[in-house]
Amino acid sequence: MLSNFRKITPLLNRVMIKRFEVPNKSAGGILLPETKEKDMQIGEVIAIGPGSYDEQGNFQEIAVKVGQKVLLPPYGGTSVDFKDEKYSIYKDSEILAVLE
Amino acid sequence: MLSNFRKITPLLNRVMIKRFEVPNKSAGGILLPETKEKDMQIGEVIAIGPGSYDEQGNFQEIAVKVGQKVLLPPYGGTSVDFKDEKYSIYKDSEILAVLE
Amino acid sequence: MLSNFRKITPLLNRVMIKRFEVPNKSAGGILLPETKEKDMQIGEVIAIGPGSYDEQGNFQEIAVKVGQKVLLPPYGGTSVDFKDEKYSIYKDSEILAVLE
Amino acid sequence: MLSNFRKITPLLNRVMIKRFEVPNKSAGGILLPETKEKDMQIGEVIAIGPGSYDEQGNFQEIAVKVGQKVLLPPYGGTSVDFKDEKYSIYKDSEILAVLE
Amino acid sequence: MLSNFRKITPLLNRVMIKRFEVPNKSAGGILLPETKEKDMQIGEVIAIGPGSYDEQGNFQEIAVKVGQKVLLPPYGGTSVDFKDEKYSIYKDSEILAVLE
Amino acid sequence: MLSNFRKITPLLNRVMIKRFEVPNKSAGGILLPETKEKDMQIGEVIAIGPGSYDEQGNFQEIAVKVGQKVLLPPYGGTSVDFKDEKYSIYKDSEILAVLE
Amino acid sequence: MLSNFRKITPLLNRVMIKRFEVPNKSAGGILLPETKEKDMQIGEVIAIGPGSYDEQGNFQEIAVKVGQKVLLPPYGGTSVDFKDEKYSIYKDSEILAVLE
């Protein structure tokens, strides 16, 4: 089982993202209004691959760093459930933006 | 939530555009006639990515600058609602023209 | 609104064309016969982009000049209504021929 | 109108072909049998573009010359009616063969 | 008409093949059993184009010679009826094998 | 029959993976709850190809090593049943991550 | 007819494979159980093409040798019946693995 493993290291130009669940209740338990923001896929970069060669044989660094918060596209990525947490694996070129 | 963040920085060759809502009423409250212009997607460049390497490993600058007003294609782009404003993230090569 | 702007400058390898409306009445008001020519899309180059880099990083000039009359393909292009005139934005490689 | 123009010059790697109408009656007025040849698309090269750069930035000459008779593919090309004659605009790489 | 011409010379990397009709009767007039071989498309190379440049601008010789017998793919190619014979025009890279 | 062979060596940039069957019962025979992990495709690299040349003629090493445990994509790969074991053959670029 | 020919030599990067029919009866005539192995496509390399140039003009050797036993993909390839034997013609990059 996946949980038997300690560590997941993405391959080539892939990155592993821990998805933030957007709470539909405020800290005080009040139901948050349905906002478009709720669908926004946000997450944190947990692990990155070694990078990969483009079609011309030029090495391409990964565009994000571990620990960065990122804005994810509405589609794409492979969902991975690991030790009861929700992760996704994307190609780094699919990630939209860095959040600060 | 997305609003917890201060800043969104697009990745690679992407740009973030603040879309102008085309008013259907004039300043005096008169309903503007349905004009084709109304569908025109216009916006302002809010943030740009660092640029990216093309398939040959040549670095490609971003084709627009922050602050420029631009004409957007009728399709494409990812909508982002951030602090109650409507934004879109496009690849710079998708943007049609600069408006002056 | 788009009309608030003075000038539209296409980006990269795009060109802006002012489409000629093919009259279906002669100067004297006689209904012109339905001819195939009527569907021919003709226009004048109003503005051109700066050109763009091909996949190999080689800079490609724009294939047409401002002022040239051109024959447009039956499909493609983005329609732009600007100050009550009909324009289209094409990639220069989509334009079929120059008319003299 | 297209007929107001003197000359049509194809752009990039395009060529303009004047299509030969395959007669279905012999000179003497006898109805020619339905032959497969009838569907053969034949024409004469009327005008050629300046040629174009391939993906690697290498300039590619046009593969046919003005005046050559050519065999056209059953599909593709854009039909152009000009001064009551039937023309087609093809990319030179679409043309099948030269006829002598 | 196509038959008015003497010679057909394929363009670029195309080749012209004279298709062998697979007889369904033996020399002695006996109906040959329906064999899979019957669908095999076999032909002889009648004419070859000058060759063409690949995407990198490298010149690619034609892979077959005039006079060679070849095995054709079940699909593709453009049929050409010329002087009551059945020909096909293929790109040389579509041809499966040479028969000896 | 495949079982008559001793060894299967993947070609080019392919790798052969022995898929782990995710048990739906614990060691003590208790039915494990339906968890998302169950669909996770995990396996061990059994054999790797020699690697292959990318479109630019640059040799690309295989991204995984024999013996590594890997996370497989939910789709793709060719299933191979060999000596009563379940294997899959993937292109190395399809494999998501290495597990430790 | 194909059988009139002595030899079939694949072109470019193609290889000709003689497919092994997977017996559904054992030597002693006992009906073998329906096993997944039965669908496994196995064959022997009978003839190989000269190899071909990739998009960059780099010559690519054929990945298999005559006489090698190979594992074929479940799809693709062109079937060729020649002198009552079943062959298939594949591009060498489609072949999954070598069997020893």
TrEMBL record, chains A, B, C, D, E, F, G:
Family, per entry: Belongs to the GroES chaperonin family.
The protein, known as: 10 kDa chaperonin, mitochondrial
Keyword hit for Chaperone: yes
An annotated Gene Ontology molecular function: protein folding chaperone
GO cellular component assignments: mitochondrion
PANTHER family: 10 KDA HEAT SHOCK PROTEIN, 10 KDA HEAT SHOCK PROTEIN, MITOCHONDRIAL
Organism: Blepharisma stoltei
Cross-referenced SUPFAM superfamilies: GroES-like (SSF50129)
SMART domains: Cpn10 (SM00883)
Keywords recorded for this protein, A-Z: Chaperone
